[in-house]
């Protein structure tokens, strides 16, 4: 309802500056410096420089948290003794611990001091310390402290300016932390992304090399993930990836790093882990994945994973961490070749499965693995001897049921199936169908004494590669087996190449999507930070623009809006007052009433905001909301005196929220209105200032609005019917 803050204090500060003038000057100068800073240390240094100019104190300090570490900057603007400096630092850190409930480890505290301690000090007992928490909502993330003699401490106006600096710094630190977190995570799964993985790998590698400790890298992917995408769609595949990440995250150590490498491939860094510890974790993760069903929409699926492990032994150093990752990738490839659902450790030479029940696809000295099915034992004996003499590995079965069990037990383990058509317990064509269901890459040769045209056609229709008549001529059989296995090899290579191309396309698509998501989120963070600076310029508390954005989304959802339309309304609400950037400080921050000419200028801020945003396709809808957010349902609003549904729907929704928030929020010039009084005022304006349909939806979500707004409620209200 009220468009600008009103200030009660009209006493000029030091050097002829009013307190609001001083804080506005700090906002303009420090705001830009904070946004341009690339890291926490630079932000603290910019804030410290501003504090030095404002306070004129002998000692100034800032401490702020950054991940598990902290940053401490001290400015000695006047002579202090070593004891006074030590006491000041201790009191600053203690004040941060007391306010935040967290202590900073001095060994992980980056400290910088500008100036030197001397024998001349501040005066011992006459030293006074003032503390100012750096906080977002109820969370303290840092502390500012200033110290000096009682006679030289800043007056109340300049102390208020220090609090203002603490507020600006809190907004900037939070925005920077959000951007860092965004840049490090995969937007789909929440796991770390590849860029962060490589940084962490390098850090772990350097630690391992410097302190001569082992480390391991585990690369894994979901078996037959492409089949799930093909059968259920990529949205189901995305749901599965998220659930798999949650399962993996629950199974690893707190010190391990889980990252998405690309597609359905993941990497886990295990600092200070040897081979035995890596294998224990691998088996635990394999069991966790295959031991549960994953929900994908209305259905559930069971999946398995293949894992490749590489271990860095400092006594046998590798050239770099990239070689370690490459070895894990090689081990993963072999793990999938050995039948999937197992883990292998990279070793020079042969790699064997870590899972005891995993059956290798081919023996190290075998040209291929063959399953031969015939009801005559003598023929099987001849086939085995003939093929094994040529370097093949041969398993035999005399019945259809026996062959079925061997195929199921050794799924994806056979390269070639030799099958008779007529068997005591069934038709050999049934086995061909089963073999291709279990492993489409298997090649089948039919051997039969009933070499009719119909039998040959039926066998080829069931996927048989060739048809051989009994009695078998050895050279003919060996030539057919060789052709069949060459065909299989060519088919597998083509499939691998096709899968590789699809993975590349999927990875590129994922990278582009991720980049767009990151740009979008970075844009949102930048908008929130810019708006927070605008709020600070007008001395708003409680992150006004973000709060009304969240409240607008509550009401918009109640009216059935969703998806992109909901997001665009949220942006419009967030940026509703962006046009005030173009309003002169002499008007925007004027402590008294505005003249009619000044009101004419103030009422231009919706059009200024619209011109500011309209050329961005990303903000085109938001620009329409900004332009119309002061229009009224009865046509008495501004700037275009629009009436009824000619007003942008988002603007109609926001108008109710803006009015309600203005009444429920305390200001320096007024107390907050009770819930009942604010609701009554909104209802009274239905059909005049507000859209009746929006007011009706507003009545249905008052409790949710109160919970989201987190105003200090002085009265309760029952939900509207």
Structure description:
This protein has a 5-stranded mixed beta sheet with strand order 3-2-1-5-4, with helices on both faces. Strands 7-8-6-11-12 form a 5-stranded mixed beta sheet, with helices on both faces. The protein has a 5-stranded parallel beta sheet with strand order 14-13-15-18-19, sandwiched between helices. Helix content is 51%, strand content 15%. The radius of gyration is 36 Å and the shape is elongated. Helix 15 (544-558) packs antiparallel against helix 24 and helix 16 packs across helix 20. The longest helix has 64 residues, at 474-537. Residues 1-17, 352-365 and 713-721 have low confidence and may be disordered. A hairpin with a 2-residue loop joins strand 7 and strand 8. The protein is of the alpha/beta class and 721 residues long. The protein is built from 24 helices and 19 strands.
């Amino acid at each position: 309802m009220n468009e600008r803050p009103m200030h009660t204090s009209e006493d000029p500060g030091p050097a002829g500056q009013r307190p609001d003038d001083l804080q506005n000057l700090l906002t303009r100068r420090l705001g830009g410096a904070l946004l341009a800073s690339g890291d926490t240390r630079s932000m603290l240094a910019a804030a410290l420089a501003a504090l030095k100019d404002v306070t004129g104190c002998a000692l100034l300090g800032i401490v702020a948290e950054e991940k598990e570490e902290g940053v401490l900057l001290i400015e000695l603007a006047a002579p202090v003794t070593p004891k006074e400096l030590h006491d000041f630092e201790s009191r600053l850190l203690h004040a941060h611990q007391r306010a935040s409930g967290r202590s900073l480890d001095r060994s992980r505290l980056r400290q910088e001091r500008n100036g030197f301690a001397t024998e001349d000090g501040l005066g011992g007992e006459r030293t006074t310390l003032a503390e100012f928490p750096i906080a977002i909502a109820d969370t303290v993330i840092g502390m500012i402290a200033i110290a000096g003699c009682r006679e030289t401490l800043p007056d109340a106006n300049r102390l208020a300016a220090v609090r203002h600096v603490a507020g600006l710094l809190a907004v900037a630190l939070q925005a920077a932390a959000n951007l860092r977190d965004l840049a490090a995570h995969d937007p789909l799964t929440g796991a770390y992304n590849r860029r962060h993985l490589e940084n962490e790998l390098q850090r772990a590698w350097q630690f391992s090399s410097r302190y001569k400790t082992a480390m391991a890298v585990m690369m894994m992917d979901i078996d037959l993930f492409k089949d799930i995408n093909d059968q259920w769609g990529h949205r189901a595949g995305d749901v599965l990836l998220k659930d798999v990440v949650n399962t993996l995250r629950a199974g690893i150590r707190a010190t391990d790093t889980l990252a998405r490498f690309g597609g359905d491939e993941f990497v886990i860094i295990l600092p200070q882990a040897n081979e035995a510890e890596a294998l224990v974790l691998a088996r635990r993760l394999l069991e966790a994945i295959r031991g549960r069903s994953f929900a994908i929409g209305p259905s559930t699926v069971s999946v398995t994973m293949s894992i490749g492990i590489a271990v860095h032994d400092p006594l046998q150093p590798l050239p770099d961490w990239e070689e370690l990752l490459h070895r894990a990738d090689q081990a993963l490839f072999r793990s999938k070749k050995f039948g999937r659902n197992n883990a292998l450790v990279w070793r020079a030479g042969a790699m064997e499965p870590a899972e005891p029940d995993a059956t290798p696809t081919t023996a190290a000295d075998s040209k291929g693995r063959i399953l031969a099915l015939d009801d005559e034992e003598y023929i099987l004996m001849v086939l085995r001897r003939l093929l094994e003499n040529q370097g093949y590995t041969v398993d035999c079965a005399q019945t259809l049921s026996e062959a079925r069990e061997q195929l199921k037990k050794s799924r994806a383990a056979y390269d070639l199936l030799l099958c008779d058509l007529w068997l005591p317990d069934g038709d050999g064509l049934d086995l061909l169908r089963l073999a291709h269901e279990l492993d489409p890459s298997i090649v089948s040769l039919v051997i039969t004494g009933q070499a009719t045209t119909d039998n040959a056609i039926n066998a080829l229709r069931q996927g048989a590669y060739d048809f051989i008549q009994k009695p078998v001529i050895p050279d003919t059989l060996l030539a057919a087996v060789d052709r069949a296995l060459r065909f299989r090899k060519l088919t597998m290579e083509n499939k691998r190449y096709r899968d590789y191309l699809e993975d590349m396309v999927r990875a590129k698509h994922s990278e582009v999507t991720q980049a767009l998501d990151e740009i979008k989120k970075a844009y949102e963070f930048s908008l929130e930070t810019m708006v927070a600076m605008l709020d600070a310029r007008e001395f708003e508390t409680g992150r006004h623009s973000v709060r009304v954005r969240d409240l607008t989304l509550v009401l918009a959802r109640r009216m059935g809006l969703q998806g992109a339309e909901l997001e665009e309304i949220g942006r419009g609400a967030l940026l509703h007052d962006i046009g005030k950037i173009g309003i002169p400080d002499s008007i925007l921050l004027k402590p008294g009433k505005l003249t009619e000419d000044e009101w004419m200028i103030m009422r231009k801020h919706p059009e200024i905001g619209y011109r500011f945003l309209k050329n961005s396709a990303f903000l085109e809808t938001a620009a329409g909301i900004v332009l119309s957010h002061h229009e009224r349902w009865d046509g008495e609003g501004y700037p275009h005196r629009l009436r009824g549904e000619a007003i942008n729907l988002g603007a109609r929704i926001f108008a109710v929220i803006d009015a309600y928030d203005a009444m429920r929020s305390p200001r320096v010039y007024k107390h907050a209105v009770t819930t009942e009084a604010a609701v009554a005022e909104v209802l009274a304006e239905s059909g005049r200032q507000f859209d009746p349909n929006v007011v009706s939806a507003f009545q249905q979500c008052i409790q949710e609005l109160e919970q989201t707004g987190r105003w200090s409620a002085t009265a309760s209200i029952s939900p509207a019917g």
